[in-house]
What we know:
The structure holds 4 protein chains of 4 kinds. Chain C is mostly helical. Helix content of chain C is about 70%, strand content about 5%. Chain C is built from 15 helices and 6 strands. In chain C, the strands form 3 sheets. Chain C has a two-stranded antiparallel ribbon. In chain C, strands 2-3 form a two-stranded antiparallel sheet. In chain C, helix 4 crosses helix 10 (about 245-270) and helix 5 (about 115-145) packs antiparallel against helix 10. Chain D is mainly alpha-helical. Chain D is globular. The termini of chain D are far apart. Chains B and C meet through helix 1, strand 2, helix 5 and helix 6 of B and helix 3, helix 6, helix 10, helix 11 and helix 14 of C.
Amino acid sequence: MAAVGETILEVRDLNKSFYGVAANEQVNFDLRAGEVHGLLGENGAGKSTLCSVLAGLYRPDSGEISLDGQRVSLRSPHEAAEHGIGMVYQHFRLVPSLTVAENLVLGLKGQGVRLTLRAVETRVAEIAEEYGLSVHPSAYIWQLSVGEQQRVEILKQLYRGARILILDEPTAVLAPQECEKLFEVVRHMADQDHSVVLVSHKMEEILGHTDRVTVLRGGRNAGTVPTEDATASQLATMMIGAEHMPEAGQHEPRRIDDAEPVLTVTDLHVTGDRGTPAVNGASLEVCRGQIVGIAGVAGNGQREFQEALAGLRPATSGSVRLGDRDITAASPRRRSQVGLAYVPEDRLGTGLASGLTIEENLVLKSYREPPHSRFGVLSSSAIAATARTLVERFDVRGARRQMAVSLMSGGNLQRAILARELTRSHDVLLAASPTRGLDVAATAAVRGHIRAETDDGRGVLLFSEDLAEITELSDLILVMSRGRIVGSYTPETLDVEELGLLMTGAKDHGAHQDGGRAA
Amino acid sequence: GDDEEAAPAAPAEAPAEAPAEEPAEEPMEEAEPAEEPMEEVEPAEEAAPSDGTGYSVAFVFDLFIEDGGWNTTHYRGVQKVQEAFPGLEVQVIEEISPGPAATNAFEDLASAGVDMIVGTTYFMPDVMPVAEQYPDTIFLTWAGWQTADNVGHFDGATEDGRYLDGLIAGSVTQSGIIGYPAGYPIEEVNRALNAFTIGVREVNPDAVVQVVYINSWYDPPVEQQAAEALANGGADVLAHELNSPAVASVAEDRGLNIIGYSSDRSEVAPNAWLSSFTFEWGPYYIDQVQQMIDGTWEPALTYGGLQAGMIGNSPYGQDVTDEMLALVNERRQQILDGTFDYFAGPILDNEGNVQVPEGGTIPFEERTTCCLWLIEGVEGSIS
Amino acid sequence: MTLRVSVEPRARPALAVRVGVPIASLAAAALVGAAIIVVSGNSPLEAYRTVLDSSLNGVRPITRTLVLATPLILTGLAAAVAFRMRVWNIGAEGQLYMGAIAASGLALWLPADTPKVLMLAAMIVGGSVLGALWAGVAALPKAYFNTNEVITTLMLNFVALYFMNYLIFGTVSFWRDPGRNYPQGKLIPDSAELPIIHHRLHYGLVIALIAAVVLWWVLRGTTWGFELRTIGDSPSASRYAGMSVSGKILSVLALSGALAGVAGAIEISGTLKALDPRAVATELGFTGIVVAAVARLNPLGVVPVAVLLGAVAASGAKLQTIGIDAEIVFLLQGLIFLFVASGEFFLSNRLVVSSTSAAMSQTPATEAAHE
Amino acid sequence: MNDSVLVLSIVSAIVAGTPILFAALGEILTERSGVMNLGVEGMMLIGGVTGFWAGVQTGNLWVALLAGGLAGVVFSAVHALLAISLRVNQIVSGLALVIVGNGLSSYWGTIGDAPLIQSFNGVQVDPILPEALRGLPAVGPILFGHDPVVYLSWLIVAGAGYFLYRTNAGLSLRAVGEDPAAADAAGLSVTGIRYLFTLVGGFGAGVGGAYLALAVLGTWQAGMTAGAGWIAVALVILAGWRPWLALLASYVFGALRTLGFTLQIAGVEVPSDFLSMIPFVVTFLVVVIVSANPERARRVGAPASLGEPYSREAR
Ligand SMILES: Nc1ncnc2c1ncn2[C@@H]1O[C@H](COP(=O)(O)OP(=O)(O)OP(=O)(O)O)[C@@H](O)[C@H]1O
Ligand SMILES: Nc1ncnc2c1ncn2[C@@H]1O[C@H](COP(=O)(O)OP(=O)(O)OP(=O)(O)O)[C@@H](O)[C@H]1O
Ligand SMILES: [Mg+2]
Ligand SMILES: [Mg+2]
């Protein structure tokens, strides 16, 4: 076991590209025993790619990796694990239909023939105890909240004796208290001489919880610095190469006593995928020109709530009114026709059809209307024209005419969705985690669009696990927990501490979770 | 529903309407198939003068010649032809399914100058359009009914052999139940079944024949299951009108007796084996080739049984006693002499209707359109 | 630095690739086929010459090939349209039987002096309707309970076969010509026969070709086709866009069944002239699935593939006359499927030789437009 | 008692169901790994002809079954290559196997001067348990009257059930079929496991075909399965990918067919064609009824990644 401070992992001139797009170019990286090493970069800077290479998931096109001075080749996650490298992926890699314990032993060698989970469960209990990662070993993954699932992922790596733990954007899905707990765990592991690679977009996390930080830009090294010498603006510069990041200007919360409600939800009940109740009696009101933000830990019924509002999931009881129209039973198409715009959490797969072209996706909701089609016959010229204008107005980049959108980047995917949704006439915008995983520039652009909504007297219902986003945008902040609205604040009355407690109020929200592997 | 009235009606209306709408059928009425093949078969017996050199014949099969059933019986005929005409060029084309594929096959052969093309199963609809275009080629098909200047058809009177098989089955059965898995409830099958049952009841008036139709000519796993079902029902003798050896091997496995269908199954079922009628296409084929060579060939609808030499019998199994053989041989001789008619009335069907009145019979030339009824003593139905 | 050969997905195959790969696959199949023919003691050259002579060399061979290809085009389209939406309709076989039953029934039921146009229209519409309804029996549970359609359509094939057999072999039905030595369907009147283009080639081919072109256009040029492609691509996105997935399942399976039904109707009206179960049940439906897949579910691609198979089938008997076993012919067909199907891989993936510098192969942009 | 129609029919159903059971078990394991192989019919035919050939050569049942199984393995390897490595549409690859298997087996079985189709195998498949047990009322014939292969199939059913739910390897198999990406990250070789169990499925189908030829039919016939392979595929779905239910389904399917014949003998006034439809209609109805209840549907649902090729770097 290497002494503290000694370099245990070293990456030289790593190259990896996809579809001829260079994700990592000549990347160098080194990791020391017992350090928490931050990895910072914009979307697509190559962070996940680098991590996936270290975890043995991706095969590098070229480059050297050495552990404890020995050159190694990590041809599979199994080989990486044997070298003590474990990764918690941006999108969790757990089998929903199996239990926690089963997921832990899955793929472990030397387990013997019989599946004996009892031993595992006791060992798990120990580790959980040691690192304060409480989960129920015999619970099914699909029953767990996202936060719990993340703990399972970390447990899994510790259980496998990982000495190098890679966490890819671990806080993206966590409530503040959960984040704090996570960083305690991380620190504790470092003290145990484990090394941790911490990927994040969030400056404060990097500054607050790492020993050194490596910044990637456009797949290349932008430098590695000790955290104590680093400043936010310096890192930002390294990240996006510009002196100052775009200002996310705080805005004036509106007084809305006079305004009439555009969206009224009364005592809504919705059932989840597994037949268990997901939303139990949620009520709220969104007025013209108002942004209502719903904060909450993933898996507390937000998704089912959104889907019910969008008409993708039937409401078992309660009512939804758009203006003075009752749309409780209306079809998704009808809702969109009468003025509901929806930016779903899952961009590729729900918001956009991944195999279709950008043009086709931009008319996904208006293809039936002239000029895009008449009497069921599509007009490719009209569709192309619409696409061209939208791409310009919303500055969608990287789109090629006949190319499947799955090849486009995260931020551009989101821009495309906004372009389509916001340009249809609507009174209410329903937006779910609209900036998750987007970099600063993209985030600023998206938030700008959302604010602009209220200026034209529309109402916005905003779901997000990112508290900062909620507080920055909302005129009214609601807290969702266990499928209910459990708290309500205006920006003035906001008490982040208390809000966080409400969000994480109870831990066994699992029953409402469906796999929880966010898009 | 419609079957009840349809079944008895069919034979009645068949002759009535046939001439009206199908003049081509008339040869059927006129031809006296009973003797027609008789006299003509003679020349085949004494060695043929020509050895067939310079002539060519092709046989088209819908399955392969080794199927151990229908196609094998025809292939035996082909081999007889080759023996009789060493110089004759003989081609065998297998696995031609009816429809356009068959039409193509016949066209290929005709255009290649083959003098006589024989379809060994019901290929008539596929042959007719080709025959029109190749008037110099002779076409023969099994069970066809519409002749043309260069098209004739043939069929074997299974019932002759089946009646004799029935005599044996009836004598052997202890349980008085005989299982009879068959393909489809069609005239030919029912006719043979009825004759078989007549034989059975002649020697064993209380015995019954249980028939099961599997609605396929070839489905070994299902044939096996049908045989099992019948054995489970108490049958101790199995007879069948199906092509695969599956039924025979069930009989052997379960210690029953087996009457085959047109081929000797004694290898599969050495202990269970009793006997089977056989199709003897050889004499007919040889005769037709001879006529072609002599230039005397005339289109005909040939329907021949024992008398025509188109129906024979396989070797008998160990359980067939001498007195059984004696009876069988006596009856065979009487049929050959024309002094015995197993279809002599009265005949009731298994629903109690009179199908053949006292003193009546089923005339040989009307047999091919019989029967859409099952005779008294058969358990099962064709509805 | 070391060279490494790696497999990389293609965004969009270039036109040259999309044409070249299938041809290469065919060549490979022909080679392996040649090997087998040699083993079976015959001359590959003679064999392949025979295939060409009896299928493509001359007007008559070509007409025969096309006669056999016609139903395959239609069943191929039937599979293509369903598979495009990831609805695995294995039931074209039974739907085709139903089409044949309906068409022959109408031809016999309508007065024989009905004008040809009306008669043919009635048969084809009738065939497509019954085919669609039969597919509907599987479509309803699929649409409303998401019942696995592979098993339901498979079971319905057996049921349809027994039903067709019943009509001719099981009873003296309206379809059956009574009092024949061997059960057979009543011949349809002349007014019900498709006119002949040449030799035995009938206008069913034209109907099939029109169907192919129309389906191709419908898939890319209509809202219906757009919805079908979207659902096939990502169901949740299409639900989000307000499309009715269950409704589409019904209409797609109905169209698929209708196409198979038309194939049955055309077989009756164009080649068989009577309902003959033995001639109708020749696996045209199953073969259509493979045709569609080999054609990469592209309606226009279905046509050449079907013709290719027609050509191989058309030479079946001729090959036997030169001493090649019937089974070898099936084997050749199977090989073609296997190889062309494998070729699929090289359409959606490319082998990349990479060295130190990241492989800079062509970007999606430089690759040709999609179908 | 022991020759009552009921008892005998149950016994017959077991005999008839056994070849299908072997094939279905193999296919269950294959599909559990996420690979769908519709080529069962073709693999059974290949296994049948090879097994029968081996039977004729050696006269030894076990050698023959092994040979049949191995032939199935070789044949399924083609599907593995196409479906797993080349990511070919699995339905197509399966159908191609059926076509090739049909041609190849018929060819082999009918060539030569002593073709298999005319040979008979000396293989003995007799009951193994003592007369005393076999004589017991009802249970005797039903439980103790079978040949060793039937008992082998029961062992395999139990083994497969134990394997799937009680062993680490079984856990890995289920994980690969449910979520290959997660299994991959957990250090399992998705490709390796899928290859292995595709071959296992081929083995099952091959043994099924060999048993059909050697024991059930006692002879080899070209295209002798006549759709049995397709029924096996259907029963896998009907059984909800569970070995025990597959056993039940195979026997019930056989029994339903026998029922149709029993009804014919009883002379019910229903055309035999419609009686022949019974097993297929019942299967259809059961599948629909099961899926009609979402809760039940989920429990007997297909492996989540069934039919989906997996590629590590695709996203
Ligand atoms: N799955 C993919 N296949 C092929 N090319 C891809 C894929 N994903 C991304 N690319 C290419 O890489 C480029 C950058 O993608 P990436 O997702 O990193 O964008 P990004 O930097 O995150 O931008 P944004 O900030 O808008 O998300 C895109 O232009 C896209 O063309
Ligand atoms: N599996 C893949 N297939 C194709 N392109 C990929 C794949 N993974 C990453 N890319 C591309 O490689 C580049 C780097 O992506 P990567 O996910 O490493 O960026 P990142 O820094 O993790 O971005 P983010 O902050 O959005 O997670 C991007 O252009 C991305 O689109
Ligand atoms: Mg990105
Ligand atoms: Mg990332």
